[in-house]
Amino acid sequence: MVDQDWAGVRKRIVGLSMLPASQKVFGSLGHRWRLEDPLGEGDIVELESQIGVRLPSEYRDFLAMVAAGGAGPSYGVFPVRRVQGRWRWEGDGADLADLSRLADPFPDNGPDPQVLERLLAERPEEEDFEEIENFDTAIDAWDKRWESVMFAPERTTGAIVLCHHGCAQRDWLVLSGSHRGTMWSDPRADDADLEPLADAEGKPLTFSRWFTDWLDKAEHDARRPSVGS
User: Fold this and answer.
1) Angle of helix 57-65 relative to helix 9-17, nearest 10 degrees?
2) What is the domain extent for residue 216?
3) CB 228 within 8 A of CB 32
4) Would you write out the chain's pLDDT as a tens digit for each of its 229 residues?
């Protein structure tokens, strides 16, 4: 996305926040349509120096022209802030990203689906146990194994968490590797695995499309007549 494509986005969000029905938009009570100030070029360069990788151009332009975070999909785009001289993303689950490994490539083929299949096949079922205490012990052990395998840091190297949808559902932006610039859904809390977000044609969803698709829908929902009006 070229720079001028972001030019009117901040203005659109400010205008949307003034609509009486803007509170109907999912997640708006969380971000309240607030936008952080954009980052200066010096801030972005310092951020990139600390994480060891240049940000994907669409997200980089967003930070410079729209906001460092705030109003956005669901409960908003996680803001990136300098805290005690170090840059970090802040939000529910932002700490899942390993900031020391953002220059390492995200797995080329994404997470291995066979890992998920094997784990789910080994999940204990209550009807297989005569004593509920034995089932509780077995499922607790399986849960710990699930978390250690599915949330292993190497499965999300080179990516940051940018959004929380509620119920531990999140979206990631890949910064490094062959999937650089694309958005990934994280439904691991529901025993599903990370997967790339895609548009209606099945093409990988990049940051700009992810954000502007939300904005288009938010404007539509806020302007839609109420039932009975």
Assistant:
1) 60
2) 3-106+156-223
3) no
4) 444 478 899 999 999 999 999 998 999 999 999 999 999 999 999 999 999 999 999 999 999 999 999 999 999 999 999 999 999 999 999 999 999 999 999 998 777 778 888 888 999 999 999 999 999 999 999 999 989 988 988 899 999 999 999 999 999 999 999 999 999 999 998 988 899 999 989 999 999 999 999 999 999 999 876 655 4
Q: Is 62 exposed, middle or buried (0-12, 13-18, 19+ CB in 10 A)?
A: buried
Mapped onto helix, strand or coil, the DSSP state of residue 184 is strand
In a domain, 80, yes or no: yes
CATH number for the domain spanning 185: value is 3.40.1580.10
Exposed e or buried b per residue across 177-194, where buried means at least 16 C-beta atoms within 10 angstroms of its C-beta: bebbbbbbbbebeeeebb
* Number of separate domains in the chain: 1
Residue 123 lies in a domain: no
Q: What is the pTM of this model?
A: 0.90
Tell whether 124 is covered by a domain. no
In 102-132, which positions are buried (b, 16+ CB within 10 angstroms) versus exposed (e)? bebbbbeebbeeeebeebeeeebeeeeeeee
